[in-house]
Write a structure and sequence with these properties.
Two copies of one chain form a homodimer. By secondary structure, chain A is of the alpha+beta class. Helices cover about 50% and strands about 15% of the residues of chain A. The first copy, chain A, has helices spanning about 1-20, 25-30, 40-50, 70-80, 85-95, 100-115, 170-185, 190-200, 200-205, 210-225, 245-260, 260-265, 320-340, and strands at about 55, 65, 120-125, 135-140, 145-150, 155-165, 230-235, 275-280, 290-300, 305-315. In chain A, the strands form three sheets. The first copy, chain A, has a five-stranded antiparallel beta sheet, sandwiched between helices. A three-stranded antiparallel beta sheet of chain A has the order 4-5-6. In chain A, about 40% of the residues are buried. Chain A binds a DNA duplex through α2 and α3.
Chain lengths: ~350, ~350
Amino acid sequence: MVEERRLAVLRAIVEDYVSTQEPVGSKALVDRHQLGVSPATVRNDMAALEEEGFIAQPHTSAGRVPTDKGYRLFVDKLSTVKPLNTAERRAIASLLEGAVDLDDVVQRSVRLLAQLTRQVAVVQYPILSRSTVRHVELVALTPTRLLTVLILSTGRVEQRVLELPEEVADDDLAELRAVVNRAVAGERIADAADRLGQLPAEVAREAGSRTSIVVASLIEAMSDHRSDERVAVGGTANLARFGESFDASIKPMLEALEEHVVLLKLLGEATSSSTVTVRIGHEGPYQQLASTSVVATGYGPGDEALATLGIVGPTRMDYPGSMAAVRAVARYVSRILEEQQ
Amino acid sequence: MVEERRLAVLRAIVEDYVSTQEPVGSKALVDRHQLGVSPATVRNDMAALEEEGFIAQPHTSAGRVPTDKGYRLFVDKLSTVKPLNTAERRAIASLLEGAVDLDDVVQRSVRLLAQLTRQVAVVQYPILSRSTVRHVELVALTPTRLLTVLILSTGRVEQRVLELPEEVADDDLAELRAVVNRAVAGERIADAADRLGQLPAEVAREAGSRTSIVVASLIEAMSDHRSDERVAVGGTANLARFGESFDASIKPMLEALEEHVVLLKLLGEATSSSTVTVRIGHEGPYQQLASTSVVATGYGPGDEALATLGIVGPTRMDYPGSMAAVRAVARYVSRILEEQQ
DNA sequence: CTTGGCACTCGGCCCGAACGAGTGCCAATC
DNA sequence: GATTGGCACTCGTTCGGGCCGAGTGCCAAG
């Protein structure tokens, strides 16, 4: 019973602090929430909560502020999911329905997330290694420069220009295109590279030995995973609402947003699209971002996570709202991808 | 003679203000520059410069600060080009040489510009309407979904998925591909759309009437210029060095950076790659960005400007340095594009 | 366990004084 | 006529002190 009220107090503190951005005192708390007890009692509870490390006071004669541990408890145990209203749902649906392309879907999702949460939104493009190959197109730009276009099941299209050491005839190329497509269509990208590795002998017979060089280049291109790192970022202008703590929080944030590798590490491994992951403050891998939290989830058709999307913001954020928005967007995006498949 | 010294004073004020970020007084000025006159004389000059609107004082008992008009004069008449040192030149060369793709070139240029100038860098992708078509590839994803890949002379590759109202047979598609390529290869994109417009009759004869629908979709895709608006942005973290004036300058800036349309308008029309354009403060189209300047130039093989690149920063910036960096990067990028063509 | 009371702490705010950078003007000088 | 030193003046900034009040912790009573 007592324990229960203490948690109610913690919840109240988190909610008030998030909305006012100011340390909250015992009096203000009883005024704004129906706790049914006096400020003195709340003070006792607060002392206990502080003892346990859930809240802290910035200075002796100030109110309390949740610690990372406090937010963690709040997120895990105390927050009720805040369902989006129908207007928001409709906005998501209509905005995403209109997308034509994967690129388009990603761009729109980022905008959407940023708008809904008023935070910085990040959407990772579907991971290459989890997609299957739909088609490979080879286009000779010049006799020695070859444009390869890799079309994946997720709608992602990767292009790359290869410099060939020797000229390749058009006929050989056409033959090669057919052979390659036969070999890799429907395969996961890693498997596809393997398949290609087994090809050269066959290709040499069918389409001339020179093309084996092309195959080698193709394999190399497929095994190069640096483009796994593609992400879209939006809502940076929301950083402006951080207010005060500039160098301490905005600068490292802007830096992280430029470094896509960092950003992806921050988002974390893509989890199943049904779970929303929350990483609070120091729980993340970067000390400089100790006062920022990440709310993320995987997305993809079915329950397999093709990639991650989420938001990044101050630890002092509206977790229930953010989680709801992230989950909703992930679901809609997953559905779109399913339809387009 | 007197007039000359006044301009020297203005130059000194601009330089000092840019490096210290603080209003500069008469005493400090004579200390730091060999003007050969006393502070009192400088004061007289300052009064005259203020009269003419080149400088202003924030409050009565403060030093002087250049006005936009003052910066303008400085840029036009007083600044000597600050050549990059060899280390910088080498850095540019080596970084850009390594690029494989147009995408790669653009990404690297942005990073480079941001690093060199320590400002926010913006690079526009080559404008579609000024490129010629190198190749069109058509890939059937499903019988009714068609991926079109448009490969342009600049190395830019545009893809787009078309939903077809009817199924199209593979044979028809192959035929169509050949016909389309014959029609558009080497054409500017606007002309290419026209050419396609004249095709349907011919196509109907050769490849079956259904394909005319595909052609119509292709034309629509080609005439859709919204993708002209592609830009890459980098160095946002440099905004953090703005310091103080947060809401007034960083917020609108972040907002502008998210709105690519705004950004492109800010960069201005692509000028010849030999001229660097400087737009100072209020000279730009947006009042909210009254305290930011833009240094930009066109780039592209030869002297024709395919697109614009440049930097955006506070009016109080190092113009000679920025101009030199922008020009150097534009030249190198142009050269790369030339080689790749 | 809860509550009202009470002493205590300490950050924020306001105010006035002192400071000093910088100016404008003037009369003297070159 | 331009330059210069001198001087009074302005005004933003800084610093210290005092007040205020929010908020706490503790205690004794219910």
